[in-house]
Amino acid sequence: MTWWRQPVQPLDENARAVAQARQRQLTKPAGSLGRLEKAAVELAAMQGRARPGIAHPWIAVFAGDHGVVEEGVSAYPQAVTGQMLGNFVSGGAAISVLARHLGATLEVVDLGTIDASLELPGVRHLHLGPGTANFARTPAMSAAQLEAALQAGADSVARAVATGGDLFIGGEMGIGNTTAASALACALLGCPARELVGPGTGLDDAGVLHKAAVIERALLLHAGQLDDPLAGLRCLGGFELAALAGAYLACAQRGVPALVDGFICTVAALCAVRIEPACRDWLLFAHCGAEPGHRLLLAALRAEPLLELGLRLGEGSGAALAVPLLQLACRLHGEMATFAEAAVAERQP
Ligand SMILES: Cc1cc2ncn([C@H]3O[C@H](COP(=O)(O)O)[C@@H](O)[C@H]3O)c2cc1C
Ligand SMILES: O=C(O)c1cccnc1
After folding, report:
1. Which residues form the active site (predicted)?
2. Which residues line ligand 2 (CB under 6 A)?
3. I want to staple 98 with a disulfide (CB 3.0 to 4.6 A). Which of 6, 38, 112, 320 is the partner?
């Protein structure tokens, strides 16, 4: 049996019940801390303790290039993917700043960019290929590439666990990946491209229409393959999308909470949930971004994200921004006084 079909860890329902009971005793009107209460209770069930916490966030940015860029679907040149790898490790990218602020580990995994000889200190280069093939003409990747990319995600989770990581954040970098993610989302949701496609890095209206047309053509080309989430990922996805899906599946198997970032990561999360529905239990959702399809995906996953800031960056940035909020949710849950402790009168019967 392939590793991603192995069972996922169950949540700790006892810890959840104890955490829920504690929430009702804290000195505030019941429910008044909204989603922060739910997040603390969810984390309690994931961590198997009544008072959860996040001490060591692990951030892995997965990068890959996309053959579909030759169709003219991104506002930026393809060389940006490889160039940003250097920026991640030298500390100048948005996610670098956020990781520094959080004291989080930042791992950068290059699955395969157009510069096949690229070697940067501090980057893990896997060289699965010079990016994916153009999925408007042919399947994006081979079965072997798909398997290696899924494994790369699982390997990152293994490193997170080995070094005491208690929250997994996946990020992505790959010029053209909103096109791949949108195509995969169309396949998974059974919805036409025009309903979820967006500007990505900044296409104008005509560019968005062209991007939707490229996706519609690809959906017709691969129509026979798209009922199976793994086949959809192979035909339409990207190396970094597959690594993210593999990472979310591995998080569920190892019992590590995963905080999902933006549109692209949410497509990978939906793909992972279609591969193994029980992996949904281990996912937390950081934000709803500006890409129009993000909201549809979150609804399909029954997700209530913590933030809505109009973000459209990726890299794991939205998830990193939500970490302090999750940490505060845990501290409120763990440190607030109960009505009895503070001698505060409870709700009238
Ligand atoms: C400098 C720069 C840094 C980025 N960091 C993340 N992305 C984001 O934009 C890309 C997807 O958008 P599209 O599909 O329109 O190409 C991805 O690389 C994503 O992570 C960036 C994009 C740029 C230009
Ligand atoms: O929401 C995202 O993940 C996103 C949106 C636009 C460009 N890059 C990433």
Report:
1. 315 (proton acceptor)
2. 178, 200-201, 261-264, 289, 291, 294, 312-314
3. 320
Domain(s) labelled CATH 1.10.1610.10 in the chain stretch across 10-51+333-342
Q: Is the pLDDT of residue 1 over 90?
A: no
The residue whose CB lies within 8 Å of the most ligand 1 atoms, and thus the one to mutate among 78, 110, 175, is 175
Q: Kindly state the percentage of the chain with pLDDT values over 90.
A: 99
- CATH code, residues 57-329: 3.40.50.10210
Domain 10-51+333-342 is found in CATH 3.40.50.300: no
Which residue has its alpha carbon closest to ligand 1 atom 2?
80
pLDDT of residue 67: 98
Q: In a mutational test of the pocket of ligand 1, which residue from 96, 173, 240 has the highest number of ligand atoms less than 8 Å from its CB?
A: 173
Which segments of the chain belong to CATH 3.40.50.10210?
57-329
Question: 316, 265 in Cβ contact below 8 A?
Answer: yes
76 lines ligand 1 (CB under 6 A): yes
Write out the catalytic residue numbers: 315
Q: Answer yes or no: are the C-beta atoms of 238 and 129 closer than 8 Å.
A: no
Ligand nearest to the CA of 75: 1
**DSSP H or E stretch at residue 219:** helix 205-221
Between the alpha carbon of residue 345 and those of residues 26, 171, 337, 340, the distances in Å are 11, 46, 13, 8
d(CA 91, CA 79): 19
Kindly tell me if the per-residue pLDDT of 50 is higher than 90: yes
Does this model's pTM top 0.95? yes
Output the residue whose Cα is nearest ligand 2's atom 5.
312
Largest CA distance in the chain: 71
200 lines ligand 1 (CB under 6 A): yes
From CA 160, how far away is CA 277, in angstroms rounded?
23
Q: Give pLDDT tens digits for 221-274.
A: 999 999 999 999 999 999 999 999 999 999 999 999 999 999 999 999 999 999
